[in-house]
Design goal:
With about 325 residues, this protein is an all-beta fold. About 0% of the residues lie in helices and about 40% in strands. A hairpin with a 6-residue loop joins strand 2 and strand 3 (about 30-35). It comes from Sphaerodactylus townsendi. This is Cadherin-23.
């Protein structure tokens, strides 16, 4: 400010009408100095009232408006500390898995956020993230195979980066649970089994252990869900869980020497979703000497003409072979 008086009457000193906490004023030079940090997100403009007073007590006032310019000093912050999504294997098309959202307190363009997937524990190329209505929408773009996912869980790390110079970013973990589909049938180690047992095998004795493999890895549809069943003869039964085939009664090779059994292994699916594996078991009984010889046509009656020469055939006796 200028004062046309001379001497002390023309000397001007400067004062704030109130005492702002972020600025100081040199009373002799009128230089306003910043004495504390500014935060654009709290206050975008300051209006200071300055008093100019000469040595005679005359004064005038003026206003100083200070506009605060934004800098990129706020990191994007996700709304949650972590996110959880779910997905079924073999989804045929693009399927939304989870949505994430971050906010940035800076002003445009410093608060404009872009999302990206920076890490995946498996199948990173199968996932995509797009911006929609302020959210980062994570989708799976190709069918996943549950059997290739460790423990049925995929872990992603998503980054939110702002448009400041230099840009700031933050990340958030995402857990995606993959659910199994019943897309593998139980399969026996062989399509057919050929075994032999002695006919005197005890009732309840083990004949064979069958094993079937189901490549589905969940408890619901996989190995632990398999149930065995058997048909073909009431002389044999199978343990529904272990696949152990045992006899139910004594066997007799002379009555029946061969058995053909059909064994089924079904998984935990329901209705048309259930899958079945089939194997055949051919059991041949081996003979033991458990039957006495029995004469055929006993007793024998023979008419012999006298004077028959020595060493002539008289008759033939026979014991049939069983």
């Amino acid at each position: 400010a200028t004062d046309n008086d001379v001497g002390s009457y023309g000397k001007v000193n400067y004062y704030f009408s109130d005492d702002p906490d972020r600025f100081s004023l040199d009373k002799d030079t009128g230089v306003i100095t910043l004495i504390a940090r500014l935060d654009f997100e709290t206050t975008q403009r300051y209006t200071l009232t300055v008093i100019a007073r000469d040595g005679g007590g005359e004064e005038t006032t003026g206003r100083v408006r200070i506009n605060v310019l934004d800098v990129n000093d706020n990191i994007p912050t996700f709304q949650k500390e972590s996110y959880l999504g779910a997905l079924r294997e073999n989804e045929p098309s693009v399927t939304q898995v989870v949505r994430v959202r971050a906010s940035d307190e800076d002003s445009p363009p410093n608060n404009q956020i872009a999302y990206s997937i920076v890490h995946a524990s498996a199948f990173q190329s199968y996932f995509d993230i797009t911006l929609f209505d302020g959210y980062g929408v994570i989708s799976v773009v190709r069918p996943l195979d549950y059997e290739q996912v460790s423990n049925g869980v995929i872990y992603l790390v998503v980054m939110a980066k702002d448009a400041g110079i230099p840009p700031l970013n933050s990340t958030v973990p995402i857990t995606i649970e993959v659910f199994d589909e019943n897309d593998n049938p139980p399969t026996f180690s062989k399509p057919s089994y050929v075994i032999t047992v002695m006919e005197d095998i005890m009732a309840g004795a083990t004949v064979l252990f069958l094993n079937a493999i189901d490549l589905d890895r969940s408890r619901e549809y996989g190995q632990e869900s398999i149930i065995f069943s058997l048909e073909g003869s009431s002389h044999f039964r199978i343990n529904a869980r272990s696949g152990e085939i045992t006899t139910t009664s004594l066997l007799d090779r002379e009555a029946k020497s061969e058995y053909i059994l059909i064994v089924r292994a079904v998984d935990g699916g329901v209705g048309h979703n259930q899958k079945t594996g089939i194997a055949t078991v051919n059991i041949t009984l081996l003979d033991i000497n458990d039957n006495y010889p029995v004469w055929k046509d006993e007793p024998y009656f023979i008419n012999l003409v006298e004077m028959t020469p020595p060493n002539s055939d008289v008759t033939t006796v026979r014991v049939p072979l069983n």
